[in-house]
Amino acid sequence: MKPGKLLALINSFCIILSTAAFSQTRVIDAHVYHLRNSDNIEWKDVNGIPQKKLLLHFSATQISSDQVLALYQQDVKQKWTVQLNDTILGNLQQDENSMLTYFSIPAAALKNGKNELLIQQADTTADDIRIGEIKLIPKSVNELLNEATIEISVTDRSSKKLIPARLTLVDRKHALQPIATRNDTLLAIRTGVIYTGSGKALFNIPEGTYILYANHGFQYGADSVKLIVKRGDKIKRTISIEKEVPLEGWISSDTHIHTLTYSGHGDASMRERIITLAGEGIEFPIITEHNRCINIDSLSKALNLRQYFTPVAGNEYTTAVGHFNIFPLKADSIVPDYHVNDWNAVVHNLAAGNSKHAIILNHAQDIHNGFRPFDPVRHVSVSGMELDGWPFPANSMEVVNSGAQRFDIMQLYNDWFGMMNRGNFLTPVGSSDSHDVSRYIVGQARTYIRYNGKDPANIDIPNATNHFLDGEVMVSFGLITEMNIDGKYGPGSLVPAAKQVRASVKVMGPMWAIADSIFLFANGQKIRSEKIDSKPVKGVKWQKTWTIPVTNQDVFLVAIATGPDPAKPFWPIAKPYQPTSTEWTARIIGSSGAIWIDGDGDGKRTSAHDYAVNLLTNFDNDFPSLLNQLAAYDEAVSVQAASLLYEQHRLPGSADMESILRNSKPAVKRGFMLFLDELNKSKPAR
Fold this sequence. Notes:
- A hairpin with a 2-residue loop joins strand 12 (about 185-190) and strand 13 (about 195).
- The protein has five domains: about 30-145, Jelly Rolls (Sandwich); about 145-240, Sandwich (Immunoglobulin-like), CATH 2.60.40.10; about 245-475, Metal-dependent hydrolases (TIM Barrel, Alpha-Beta Barrel), CATH 3.20.20.140; about 480-575 and about 585-600, Immunoglobulin-like (Sandwich); about 610-685, no CATH class.
- It has 13 helices and 38 strands.
- By secondary structure, it is of the alpha+beta class.
């Protein structure tokens, strides 16, 4: 062979090798790192000492087209920037879920030879994140995302009809996968998540191996398909799901719903919010923007999704002294003056005492504008007493807010018990407080309201609201706990006096949720508890009837079931966004509303506070006599008696009280000491 031809052949061979090398994905760093740009620990669930930033050096060859920087991220709450040499590629997604993120690298940003990648936080707010598995992919983001086409239909297994749904796409490591879609007004898309209002979705993804889940809110099961995708594939699949938790006579409601459009934060547009409501099976959604009254009826009809729900205009009355959701309202309702500084003004502006509106105290343990409604500085939880003397302005309160988790899932329930014993007969509420498409799931916590109609598009709003105000509800966050007394009295009922009652309790949920514990409370005191055999079954997970003796005192009964985090990519539980500890274990919960037992037979609900008031009417500092009378009642009445004595400045100190209580009945002693202990804990705050 002539030298010239040999040289040409060698050059051609080198070009082929070079092109092949450039076409291959390159792993820059396969490790996953723990980062935190703060000396304060956010979460203790990560081993080792975190790095304050990630600085990587790698060699590369510049090419004339854009490339992709791909990486894995998890638990990102704050702003973190990604910088290649002198070019800011963008920010990590502020989302706690595990996901892949793609950044476009302009051709000029990558250098021949040594390159530097820097990932760092924009401030020093505690934020423990995981980041890594960083790859360089020699193609544009558009080319990468459009390697294959997937067409999915989701049907109801019973009716065989298409159904609105949530689709969740994860890779082999269960990280959410970026998706490309064509313009479709009935889709709401985020990394790894597609909500489809029509039951159909057409989207594109890179080649790879994935699991695609489909679900339709809490009452439905989830199904999945494995997708092995090659470049150029066009894959078509149908996924069928079925209702696993039949709840005849109940409608699902989320009473705390926002959008980016009107709240100014989060990421869900109003169009996307409507699609997510249909996809999550919310039949009675309450739209509660901050100090605004918004009606989504016309847009819901334009999208042909109004058939799935009856939307209700509400308002999150957002003040410096708490947030309160009010419904139902008219779209043109005048928003009350929210420039208030105490609850007297809130009561005046909302007319809570004479209103037919639901007025819900939201996230009572969260701090907004430096104010926490049930802060120990102003509130004694065990007795429901306001230390500043303000009147309580609501007729309902959130006991579960899935967008504002508490470290103790029972904390808000215990607050509710204290309020009920105080004589504030409040409807318990589950809600999502969602402003987002997928970071916080709309309807993840929800309230089921007793309602006999079957058409979700034509719910009688005043009628459903009245049932809500009467306490005819159940609260669901992954589980349902349904209870009736003597086979006919449910939440909101007053059960006639009898020597004993039969409390029938049923715990339900989809197959993907597990219950492990069930409790029965009387006036907030645990009187029954059992472990539930944790098996993945659909529908009824546990049921039993307890015989409960009845005394001459009225009590309210509440059944609560809990279980472990399902840890499903289509139902992720968000960590508390206002941490009060560095350790947290996610739990699910479902509760009945309150059922009252008319123990004294007077035909009305009598609170523990009412009994205590009557006992103290003739009290003349004769503690032995008072304690003797209190022995006929439960612990809650003693708590209220202690609370009243404190308000009258007649309650001895803890040391003296121990001596006075020495020979009293255990329930009486516990009641007084519980109040004193909590009161003493509030003093440092004051």
